[in-house]
Design a protein that fits this description.
single chain; mainly alpha; two-stranded antiparallel sheet; 7 helices; 2 strands; about 5% strand; globular
């Protein structure tokens, strides 16, 4: 998923990936890949219009974000006409996320809710079992979003 966030950070800094054929060393997929990674990042962070409002609220909760700040970023993403504006909206949400030991579990849970991937399981070495980051046990095994 870091490529998705990297694509958004690059776009927010007006650094658009080169299109194939523009220069000898253009990145494979270039501009189109950057657009797709940004779209996936928007799904993970609940910014995409393709996600219904009740699911967006769950994503906001999983990521430990303020609903008002997230709403502003979602509106900014929806109104953006290009990759630069969308990248800025994604980066604004990334700046709100508290990064800790549980960040991977929270992003996996948010991505599952956003429809980026199927069922995700985490390994709990303490009890030698698999658990979903969306289950009560999975949420209880990680620290709360607001500390």
């Amino acid at each position: 998923m870091t490529a998705g966030f990297e694509a958004a950070v690059d776009a927010s800094e007006q650094c658009l990936w080169l299109r194939e054929g523009m220069v000898e060393k253009a990145q494979p997929g270039g501009y189109g890949s950057q657009r797709r990674w940004i779209e996936r990042s928007a799904l993970v962070l609940g910014l995409s219009d393709a996600i219904k409002p009740p699911v967006v609220e769950e994503i906001v909760e999983q990521l430990g974000l303020s609903g008002l700040e997230h709403h502003k970023a979602r509106e900014q993403y929806g109104l953006a006409s290009g990759l630069v504006g969308r990248g800025k909206a994604i980066v604004s949400v990334l700046n709100l996320i508290r990064f800790g030991d549980d960040i991977c579990a929270r992003l996996m849970a948010a991505g599952t809710l956003g429809g980026c991937w199927g069922r995700v399981v985490l390994w709990d070495p303490k009890f030698s079992r698999r658990l979903s980051p969306l289950s009560r046990v999975g949420r209880a095994s990680r620290s709360p979003p607001f500390v």
